[in-house]
């Protein structure tokens, strides 16, 4: 008897826990369906260009259009690879197109891309239109009682236009249809998104051998970047110790020698020299602590990444807000890299941007740590300008992460870094 009384409460609690996850999954699916509609439109244009090229080949001029058509297909396919990589396992692109026309047309990866672009132009675009239409139908029908009296009689219909509503019971029934639309969206959106993505994951991924070769090349490049970043960090620490702390300690040694010699002839002078030596020792200690904090701040090791970033935001000369939501701890190397990214970015903001405000947003989503730094400065940031962005990219890619920089002239500037939480 007790068990039968507790089961409804347990089921209600389980439903309450699952509802937010189902809502997030539905919204993600709708986002990917609509994003796939965008690439579907591009695929449709590329397909039309391919068709025009094929027709032109009958007139003998299509061979001149073939390279541009294949480049258009590759551009759309690369965009789809980027989109799908944000929603699952990363899809590595193939090697560059072969130089010759016939070599490019015979390339296996090109033929697979052509098959995908023709499929996505029909299936992907259709499913994207479905994903965009379903929420509009649901919103139309759910809110129908709020505005149906203001509509002309011939337009007071449900989203699918089955019949004309002339009274309140009919309007409330339309609301029930809206709830049915919502249920259809929740149940069907994730499978439709997976169906839309299936041709891309089937045709745009390279062969297993090619994938392995490209992955080895990528890991070799990131390992070299990691070694370069490590050597750069060692040189920075060495310069900081040699140019700052070491000079301070040498000054302390010299001042102590002067004070020792002055003790016998002028104790007052010795006291003044000892005071200067103490000041130099305190400055050396402060610089040494700064070097240690730049390597791995104690608050990061003892507490958490949000606590360490709070201290960085508080010390930034530009007013900086922090929005960090990291429920657990990531790998120590990842947290150290995230701290370095934020510290370097805020230093750039203070030195070069002329910004009035800055902000840092940190999220942990889908086992990846997302770090975003933005400011309202003058913009125009460039990795070739020697502003530390190259070091940020090397540190990020050493963890198999990604970096995106948007800094148009006139601002604002946004730097986004993504790191795998467990690397």
Question: In words, what does this structure look like?
Answer:
The chain has 423 residues and is an alpha+beta fold. It is built from twelve helices and five strands. A five-stranded mixed β-sheet has the order 1-2-3-5-4, covered by helices on one side. Strand 4 and strand 5 form a beta hairpin. Helix 7 runs antiparallel to helix 8. It is elongated, with a radius of gyration of 31 Å.
The biggest sheet, with number of strands, parallel, antiparallel or mixed sense and barrel status, is: 5 strands, mixed
Helix and strand sequence? HHHHHHHHHHEHEEHEE
Low-confidence stretches: 1-9
User: Which structural class do you get from the secondary structure elements?
Assistant: alpha+beta
Helix proportion of residues, in percent? over 70%
Oligomer: single chain
Average pLDDT, to the nearest integer? Answer: 80
H/I helix tally? 12
Identify the overall geometry: elongated
How much is the radius of gyration in Å? 31 Å
**Strand proportion:** 5-15%
Number of strands: 5
Strand order of the largest sheet: 1-2-3-5-4
Summarize the structure.
The chain has 423 residues and is of the alpha+beta class.
List its salient traits.
423 residues, alpha+beta, five-stranded mixed beta sheet, 12 helices, elongated, disordered N terminus
